[in-house]
Amino acid sequence: MINNPTEGRVMSCDFLELAVPGVRGMSPYQPGKPIEELAREQGLKVEDIVKLASNENPLGPPPSAVKAMAESLAELARYPDGSSFLLKQTLAEKLKVSPEQLTMGNGSNDVLVLLAESFLDAGSSAVYSQYAFVVYPLAVKAVGAEGIAVPALNYGHDLDAMVEAIKENTRIVFLANPNNPTGTSFSEQALLGFLDRVPEDVIVVLDEAYYEYGVGGDLPDGIELLDRYPNLVVTRTFSKAYGLAGARVGYSISNPEVADVLNRLRQPFNLNLPAQFGAVAALQDDAYMQKSIEVNQQGMAFLEQGFSDLGLSWIPSSGNFITVDLRCNAMPVYEGLLSKGVIVRPVANYGMPEHLRISIGLPEENRRCLEALGQVLA
Fold first, then answer.
1. Torsions phi, psi of 323, nearest 5?
2. What is the number of alpha carbons within 13 Å of residue 105 lying toward its C-beta?
């Protein structure tokens, strides 16, 4: 018989009040609804559900990465390389940077939190855009710093207003290019004009999680600007175009002095062994990357035409998702899509209650989504 240590005891402690102030004001991050959860709720078969909610790569992981990860399993009894030496060397060669500029993370989310923990405190502030990735304000609040949300311009970053919002105690400005959840992006000329006006003691975090999908347009490559702006930090991930969201691999490229600060706080062994081997293989799989980009471009065009046929407008996107304007409360539409086995992402928590964010899927998944959307709207 197991004794219950709390049986008969009246709990009078408020553990939320024991938490540090920044954490008390936070709400948990809400991910996209899992396929298995919807199957249970709606009595559907898992194989009949289409998930277009979390900006995942619809191709699945690269077979080359799966093979490399499987081969690494024999060493699971040992700790992974805490410095991610092989992965950092491979990344440095591909990106044409030095390994000393890299900080590896358990997803780029990990690095974003590291930046906040390293450079912000209760007496400082950080600037980010309205409709920007929800992790920015979460990371800022967690350390007790002041978050300054600058009103968006056409759902994107108003870079001029963001410069004006910088205060004497501002230590970080978060930019996302392309931005999640709106898909908006800004040009190299706009970025250079912004960076030239930011004080050198303010770190500019350029989140390029969706960078690979925007290549070919006027999307700037933040890495090419690092030598010119020592206060610039670029973050990227293997979760999107590289198809390894479940492996959790992200990184930042920065001035070596900034990387040194981040690596002092970075948790040891934060990147597991299979993830490191899978990421190395994915980096070398150019054919998979090219296929990912092609599928995304074709799917984006298909959904845009479908929205047009339904009389809907959308926010032009440089990512692997598109945010559509329903011009009505989006939650009933979202729930209607769930009943038809299609999972998308409501974005009311971003202050966009009439929009849904839809990830680009395979051709059949995109067709199912449009068909279901038309039925629900009718």
1. -105, 120
2. 26
